[in-house]
Amino acid sequence: xxxxxxxxxxxxxxLLLSGIGFVVGWLSGLFGVGGGFxxxxxxxxxxxxxxxxVASGANQTLGASVSGLLAQAxxxxxxxxxxxxxVVGGLLxxxxxxxxxxxxxxxxxxxxxxxxFYVVVLGIVGSLMVMESVRAIFRRRAAMPRRLxxxxxxxxxxxxxxxxxxxxxxxxxxxxxVGFFIGVLSAVMGVGGGFMLVPAMIYILGMPTAxxxxxxxxxxxxxxxxxxxxxxxxxxxxxxVLTLLLLLGxxxxxxxxxxxxxxxxxxxxxxxxxxxxLAVAAALLWDLLRLPPNLFSVGPAW
Amino acid sequence: MRxxxxxxxxxxxxxxxxxxxxxxxxxxxxxxxxxxxxxxxxSLMIFGSTEEPLGPGGDEVVVVARGPSSPFVVRRKVQVLGxxxxxxxxxxxxxxxxxxxxxxxxxxxxxxxxxRRALGLGxxxxxxxRRSGARSPGFRAALLELKxxxxxxxxNRSTVEVAGSRLFNLLLPLPATVQPGSxxxxxLLVRSRRVVARESLGFTVERIGTAASINEVARERPALxxxxxxxxxxxxxxxxxxxxxxx
Lengths: 302, 247
Prior knowledge:
Chain B: The chain crosses the membrane at residues 223-244. Chain B: It comes from Sabulicella glaciei. The complex is a heterodimer of chains A (302) and B (247). With 302 residues, chain A is mainly α. Chain A has one domain. In chain A, 71% of the residues lie in helices and 7% in strands. Chain A has a two-stranded antiparallel ribbon. The two termini of chain A are 32 Å apart. The model of chain A has no long low-confidence stretch (mean pLDDT 84). Chain B is an alpha+beta fold. Chain B folds into two domains: 22-207, Macroglobulin (MG2) domain (Immunoglobulin-like, Sandwich), CATH 2.60.40.1930; 208-247, no CATH class. Chain B contains six helices and 13 strands. Chain B has a six-stranded mixed sheet with strand order 2-13-12-4-7-9. A four-stranded antiparallel sheet of chain B has the order 1-3-11-10, with no helix packed on it. Chain B has a three-stranded antiparallel sheet with strand order 5-6-8, with helices on one face. In chain B, helix 5 (209-220) crosses helix 6 (222-243). Chain B starts with a helix and ends with a helix. At the A-B interface, strand 1, helix 3, helix 5, helix 8 and helix 9 of A face strand 5, strand 6, helix 4, helix 5 and helix 6 of B.
């Protein structure tokens, strides 16, 4: 069933889009991540122009994260104070990111820049995930005691604020910086950034794991909303038909994935997710390195 | 007084036309092509008849169709530190978003070269001179190749079919990526290497229905559109999780 996408100005199979949404949703439910980092590259792979893939990917991640946020908020797993600081950083980051994106698209470098961002970010995150979970699998056998949270350089900065829910008394600078960085990535890559935000919250900010998922979802929802808005106004790439078709599959897939994910062990799940992230990075890197089938490309001039 | 003069003039012109049938009559199967949410491209038929017989030794018909023009950029990838990035680019002004030419025989066989070029019949006769950026002829060639691959530029993809030596027709396929706007179709009658009659026709490609409204709102009122997108995505995500909850 072909459907005409009004913003991408092309005709795509609606079932294919919902199917992609379902698979990505299933994987994201399985691993407890938003799935934007899988969705945007797949969209570019099937020929959706990268500005539309990035902007609609962010919009889709927003929809996919809302229900998770509501569920976490009901259970009281959101640190709203920490979330707000992260969101302020994230909003500033998304503004900067969209400016960068607009500049890249004027220079005609969007495709390569988005791919390079993906390769670098996913390569680093995937490697860390795999290493960390392999270490954890070995550590499980040795059964080492864990501290409540690690004290790091982040605890010595000024502008301290008390985050009751996270049982932290730290400077607002690290969460602002983390939020900003995720905001930039969200705008350029069309992702929520949960896959980076969660480890950053645990290892850099030292937040307790119970509130990490809920608080990161709060940041993801706010920042993807901001990215959607700015991308729609400045670049004009948000395709609501594309977003809704993807969401349709994704929300169904996420529920199946979540019920399956509950049966997997934490470390193994993270190792698998890390491998998946590395595979996406490798596929995109290959695309950048190999001789392109056609050296020339044509596009409308702005 | 002026109106009366105009009327007389019109009668004077039209009068002989009634008396002797015109050598060429052509029409389009549709005057408006609609891009709806289910649009996957469309074919339209150009048909007509001639006074004199068509075919070898007789008259020939050439059809040329042009879509709205806009500027395009052609980019060439170059290898930087092992990565293939977009490098030099050339900007072409006035590039027809759609172009098709076909005839009972290829235009270059039935018209003198200067005549054919002047009429813009054939991809090599397209004037793509207003350009800036990289000067290499490779960019022009790449533009031709990519547009043809996309089915947006067609040169003698099919021939004008003749029935009963006086009726002719041509099926013109428009791919799903056609731009909205007004299109011009010219039908030329060629006799002994000269254009002896022509008929100018036109059709429009329009977005209608949901696709049109979405595109219009996104263009005209992007802030409103963005807010609707955010709310719709949020609502769908929430509704979906309620519908598909498996616990």
